[in-house]
Protein 1
Amino acid sequence: MRGILRWLWRHRWRIGAGLIVLLVIDAVQMVLPWLVGRAIDDFARGHQDQAGRFAALILVTGLVMASLRFFWRYLLIGAARRIRRDLRSHIYAHLLRLEPAFYDAKPTGELMALATNDIDAVTQACGFGMLALFDALFLVAFTIVAMSLIAPELLFQALAPLPVLAAFVVIAGRRIHGRFEVVQERFAGLTERVREAIAGVRVVKGFAREREFAADFAVGSKDYLRANFSLIRLSASFDPVIAALSGVATVIVLWSGGRLAIDGTITIGGFVAFTTYLGMLTWPMMAIGWVINLLQRGSASMKRIEQVLDRAPGIVDAPDAVSFPREAGIACTALTFRYPQRRDVTGVHSSDEGRPALAGCAFDLNPGATLGIIGLTGSGKTTLAHLLLRLVDPPPGTLSIGGVDVRRIRLDELRRHAALVPQDPFLFALSIRDNIRFARPEATQDEVERAARLACIHDEIVGFPQGYDAMLGERGVTLSGGQRQRVAIARAVIGDPRLLVLDDCLSAVDAATEAAVIANLHGFLHERTAVVISHRIAAVQASDLILVFSHGTMVEQGVHVGLLASGGLYARLADLQRAEEAIGS
Ligand SMILES: Nc1ncnc2c1ncn2[C@@H]1O[C@H](COP(=O)(O)OP(=O)(O)O)[C@@H](O)[C@H]1O
Ligand SMILES: [Mg+2]
């Protein structure tokens, strides 16, 4: 609830103005029953000359209320919409600041549910929830004052059922909170299932698992429905309970109030006005049930949202952060790295818990030199690349660029001057040109083409009917894995990085094209530092320093000739790949 109040506070002026208008409307509304009562008393005395005046007054009151209603809704609902916009942008911006490890542990579908359903629940609480809450409070206060002015002795009897109602509201309200949390959780789970099934639809189809997936989804849907029913059973009991209690109050008033009217303690008009005020209490009572519902839902959702908002970014600038060094040599000393343990939903740990992804890695690379890294899959190559770019944080003092610990380099500079071409690059649903100049949006067409030529993808791009304007993704062309990898290389080189990290990024390209790209890159890399990760000897053999990884440990390092001569893993891999090539050709 505190979270919601904080967001409301940001729009306090708008909300305050809306509440004042609401207060005026509710006060004006009180005049009507009083006018009607006065008119009846006049008629009872046999006068009718004032009828026109009463009618005119009633009309004016109605008009004032109607015109004010616009502002009241406009201000209060408008504030809720603004809160929704702010909250949505805030969550989005926050998500972009979180490091990749957060996304490894958090299902995307859950985040999507947060950004839709949970934000909606908060908006509802801030809009209609707030509105109905204050409307109800004002109306209750005003009608009670009006009723006590007419017949104070009748008021206490009329309000006798109130304590029962209060107890009900408190108990049921607390339960709604819990049940709504379950509903939102189930919804998040469903969203994630859909997202995953769509992302992996080819695999699902490839193994003919559509039916199982659909059945599994139906089970999830049923759970969601059940959670919803348990919530609805509770919230739906509000209205009947309140209607019953207000019926009881009416019976009491008719009974005792009728007596007072017959006695002449109150006038007939007063009696009518009193019962009208009592009738006017029914809505705020129902509204309170409704408000509790909305506020509980809103605060349950806000709690879920805050769990994400409170998650501080794990990788941030050091207080004494410095610029990216001019000379980007790399030094690595006694680097041992374990991925932080992740307790997944089932509470089961991954099997190789505790085994470091990298152990005792050490090397020194001169500025402008090329580092080759070779090793079987799972040997820690990608981990080293990610540590270098601080996509995960290396232990302090283990990895430095240009003599500066990577943890002390300003993040935006690190990511601008060190470019990573990942193994499985992600391209956006933009034109090919916009994808290439993603690293430098102001790049000219010439620069884009130069980068594409360097990555040996230019000829294929101009072969598309729309050339560089061809759209990628859902609305456009689908690139092959090898084409995507080369577009990603073009995207990395166009940013003019001082350090280029290629993570096995030619794995889907045929050997001839790979050789051509590598030859091109040699020219480009001239004064830049580069890390070339590959599982192919051909890609790394020209490197100034080659590291050989096996199961997270660096088993050899040296240059091509020396490594071949030493007859270790590198030499064995070279033999193997030569044999493969011989078969292939
Ligand atoms: N995000 C991650 N969280 C936990 N473990 C990971 C993560 N990424 C990789 N690993 C583990 O680290 C080890 C090395 O992986 P990786 O660096 O990707 O190897 P390579 O790139 O050589 O194939 C593997 O055992 C892998 O399971
Ligand atoms: Mg890898």
Protein 2
Amino acid sequence: MRTDKMTEQRENKHIQGFTLAELLIVVAIIAVLVAVSVPVFIGKMNQTKNTVCEANRKILVRQMVLDRLEDSDYSEADAVAVMENSDAYCPDGGKYSLEWDELYIKVTCDKHGSTSSGMDEDIKVSSNFIDDYRDFTIEYLKDHPTKNNDEIRKAFLEKYNGKWPTLIVDKKSYSIQPFYQGKDKTKPVEECVWLFARANGNADAGWSVPYVYNIVDGKWYGATKWDGSPGGSANISYEDTASLDEAIRNSKHSSGKNQWVEVTGYKESK
Ligand SMILES: [Zn+2]
């Protein structure tokens, strides 16, 4: 009997449910939550669309850069065709347009902005070039262990059909060239290769150069004149990449000005 009573009480409690006042409060709370979360949700959606659009633009630019490296006949029309038929499109219905020249490729979404080849670190000419030179030097030294910097550079240049890549600063072109510090053959090659750039057609002017590529941070540095202004030249024949990096960051003229300053706003091309 007692058990039946208890069951009955429990059932009664279940049926009771909410009072009207409680319900109104619940509805009011839900209304507040919705009012707060909908704008947050919409904001997140827009952020997400923006991120997806940017990622898609990067995919397109990278695809075009790689296609162009592989195919010398690759044209702007080919790139446009890639852009229009790709699965990488704006998730918000934005329209993509293309800017194209010898040095860079830029895809712009009319809703979300631009992505250009120069902004993407991993497709930079210099970082590919130095990787290529390092691998070449390692292989070359296996067969020709006594060869020096000049000879390796010469053999490597043949691989590049006699043409170095180009660095453009302030509308002037410089040829990007590799350097191997082979004094100590016991040192790993990857610690002994770097890049510099000098005026075109100035092939044998020693190791005093206007620009050097610091592979430690992936940036170009320009040599300064004594007063720290750009347009100087400095020696880049260091022991290894670490001492080159050290010199780039810390070398000073007797005037106290830095001997190297970071170059911004440059372009590179193969
Ligand atoms: Zn977009």
